[in-house]
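hiii, so i know i said id send this last week but things got crazy w the move. better late than never?? heres the sequnce for the chain we talked about at the cafe, plus the structure i predicted for it. fair warning i was half asleep when i ran it
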Amino acid sequence: MNFFAKWSTDLAIDLGTANTVIFVRGKGIVINEPSVISVHKPTGKVLAVGTESKKMLGRVPANIEAIRPLKDGKISDAKKTEEMLKRFIHKAHNKKMLIRPRVLITVPSGITDAEREIVKGAGRKAGAREVYLAEEPLAAAIGAGLPISEAGGNMVVDIGGGTTEVGLISLSEIVESYSANVGGDKMNEAIILYIKNKKGLIIGENRAERIKIKLGTAVKTDIITTAEIRGQHNVHQIPKTVTITSDEIMEALKGPVNEIVDAILKVLEQAPPELAGDIGERGIILTGGGSLLKGLDKVIRDKTGVPVSVADKPLLSVVLGAGIMLEDINKYTGILN
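okay and structure toks below
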C-alpha cells in the first residue's frame, strides 16, 4: 500500500450534475469543468467533454449529441459518464505514473446501493485502481471547516446543479439527511418556463444560466436590474428580443426556492432536541453554486428562524472536503463506502 501511495496520483472527484471538479493529492484542484460530453452518434466517437462540450449544447447538428450524463445528482447514462470520467481522469492524472490512481467520488446522501455500484463501476472502468465513495453533506461540511467530529450538531446544505443535500452531522456521522431533486438546473428550467409563458420567448439552458447569474434573486431588491434577452418567438419561430427584470426572475424562482426551504425544514423537524438546539446556536452553512443566489440565505433564515451563512468557498466545499479525506484516507475509512 505504501508503494502504491508513493507512486499513484490519487484523485478526489466531485461528480456533479452541473460540474465535475477534481482534486489531486498533493496538488489541489486541477479540473473544474461542466459535466457535459459530446459524441458523434454514427460512430460513437467522443468529440469533447467539459467546457468545450458545454458550448455545443443546443448548437449541434443532428448527428452530434451534446448531453449531461448525470441528472438529479445521479448517473442517467452510465456509458457516457464512464467516457467523460475517463477523459477527466486522464487529464488530471500524470500519464507517466505506472500505478493507476485511487479515486474518491462524492455522491448524494440518498443514493441507493445499486446506484453506488454504478458510480463505483464507472470509476473503475475510467481507470481507477480503487474507488471510495463519500456522501456529499459530509464532504461539504469538512470542506467548509465545520467541526464534524465533535459531539454537537452541524448542519450543511449543499445546493448543487441537480440536488440539494441537507445533512445534520454529529461525531463524524450523518444523523439526519434529505436529498431533494432541486438545484441550479431546476432554477434554470423555471426561468426558461417563465420566459416562455410570460414573454413568448424560447431560450436555451446556457442563456437561462447567464440570466440567473446576472438577475437571480430570492428576495426583492432596492434596485431593480434589467437585461435584454434574445431567443426564438414561441409561435412564429423567428428571432425576438425582450427585456426582463430581477423582480420577474425572483417570481420565476419561487418554486425552486420553496423546495430548498422545505428540504431544510424536513431535516430540522427530524432533528433530536439537543442537536436542534446546537443548530439554533451554530446556524446553517450553505455550500454549492445555488448558495450564491442573492438573498437565499435571508429567505432560509426567515423561514427557519435559524442563523444562516455561506461557506467561504461554496463552489469548492465538496471537493475540498473530499480532498481532505483523500490526504488522510485512513482517518476517514469508517465514513467512506
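btw The mean pLDDT is 91. thought thatd interest u
miss u guys!!
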